[in-house]
Design brief:
With about 375 residues, the chain is α/β, with parallel strands linked by helices. The protein contains 14 helices and twelve strands. It has two domains: about 5-240, 3-Layer(aba) Sandwich (Aspartate Aminotransferase, domain 2), CATH 3.40.640.10; about 245-380, Aspartate Aminotransferase, domain 1 (Alpha-Beta Complex). The chain is globular. Bound molecules: pyridoxal-5'-phosphate.
């Protein structure tokens, strides 16, 4: 199957009982056994559920992986991956990760003996320098949230192989439409399915995709033991959203390119970060390893915080909201919203300035999106 066909069909068969083209929503906690020791492949929904299994197979197929494991949020998917490690192990992590990721690393997992070093993974040399004898995992987000730094997957795979590290990639921003990290040698891909994969702001969810049987077995064990599983209804809603992923991403990225070019040419804008712009520091890498640049843009206004606030309060079509990756265009202030819990000094060190504005470009008419930003910019 070609990629677009996989998006619609991977892992999905008509329901054997009725022929229903979409899988039934198996809203059940448990399953009746035929006799002691004989079930029909399911015994308890925390362990597995037929609707969830269809979604897991579909997401694995889209990502080009053998195994998919779904979780109740992107964060619980990230957390599950870190459970491959033990106290004393060290992780090298991209320095511009989603604020929730560094929060769980530094404020929860560090309490259980894991240690973390944040490195600019867009510079492979800094990654090499951060590796210690006890390093066990390289955790990469590409493009990053919110500065959209792009990391070269080939270099990361080479470093991980050389040092015997797990290579985990949070590919939420890129989506499998534009980047499939397993093809570059990653061991684990994570998605917040809350975002582009479900695509309609309808659920909170996460997924881990891998080709490694040992990682799959451990992830299934964590999923069953911890129980951070999505409901069958949420799985079904995610599956429905995922079927149009390729079409939505095509539109989001085409529109984001136009919005980024509009912002870059605007006299009130200080700088724009979008991997599809030649001015992006890793534009060449993005162009080489991604088949599109996705729908996320960050920009800073010349007037700093008050100017950014005026734009975010002045938009009418764009929604001032915390999330990303949906059909609606959303605008966010990372310093007070998504990354509010990153200590201010760490934010400054990363270049995550207080005036930074992030846009998730949706699938509305791009002329309307640009007109809305234009009128909001007039108020600055
Ligand atoms: C890159 C990235 N990874 C993970 C997450 C966490 O996902 P969730 O909100 O589904 O827990 C987010 C949320 O914004 C994100 O942007």
């Amino acid at each position: 199957m070609k990629f677009d066909t996989k998006v619609v069909h991977a892992g999905i068969e008509p329901d054997p009982t009725t022929g229903a083209i979409l899988p039934p929503i198996y809203e059940t906690a448990t399953y009746v056994l035929d006799e002691v020791g004989t079930d029909k492949g399911f015994d308890y929904t925390r362990s597995s559920n037929p609707t969830r299994q269809v979604l897991e197979n579909n997401l694995a197929g889209i990502e080009g992986g053998q195994f998919g494991i779904c979780f109740s949020s992107g964060m619980s998917a990230v957390d599950a991956c870190l459970k491959l490690l033990s106290a004393g192990d060290h992780v090298v992590c991209s320095d511009d990760v989603y604020g929730g990721t560094s929060r769980i690393f530094d404020r929860i997992l560090a309490r259980y003996g894991l240690t973390f070093t944040y490195a600019d993974t867009s510079q492979p040399e800094t990654v090499r320098q951060a590796i210690r004898p006890e390093t066990k995992m390289l955790w990469v987000e590409t493009p990053t949230n919110p500065l959209l730094k792009v990391t070269d997957m080939e270099s990361m795979a080479a470093i991980a192989k050389e040092h015997g590290l797990y290579l985990g990639v949070d590919s939420t921003f890129a989506t499998p439409v534009f980047l499939r990290p397993l093809e570059f040698g990653a061991d684990i891909v994570v998605h917040s399915t809350t975002k582009y994969l479900s695509g309609h702001n309808q659920i909170i969810g996460g997924a881990v995709i891998t080709n490694r049987q040992d990682i799959f077995d451990e992830m299934k064990f964590v999923q069953k033991s911890v129980g951070a599983v999505p409901s069958p209804f949420d799985c079904w809603l995610t599956l429905l959203g995922a079927k149009t992923l390729h079409l939505r991403m095509e539109r989001c990225s085409a529109s984001a390119q136009q919005v980024a070019e509009f912002l870059e040419g605007h006299p009130k804008v200080a700088f724009v970060r979008y991997p599809g712009l030649p001015s992006h520091p890793q534009h060449a890498i993005a162009k080489a390893q991604m088949s599109g640049f996705s729908g996320m843009i960050s920009f800073e206004l010349k007037g700093g915080i008050p100017a950014g606030r005026a734009v975010m309060n002045g938009v009418k079509l764009c929604s001032l909201a915390e999330s990303l990756g949906a059909v609606e265009t959303m605008i966010t202030h990372p310093a007070t919203m998504t990354h509010a819990e990153v200590p201010p000094e760490d934010r400054q060190a990363r270049g995550l300035t207080d005036g930074l504005v992030r846009i998730s470009v949706g699938i509305e008419d791009v002329d309307d999106i640009i007109a809305d930003l234009e009128q909001a910019l007039e108020g600055v």
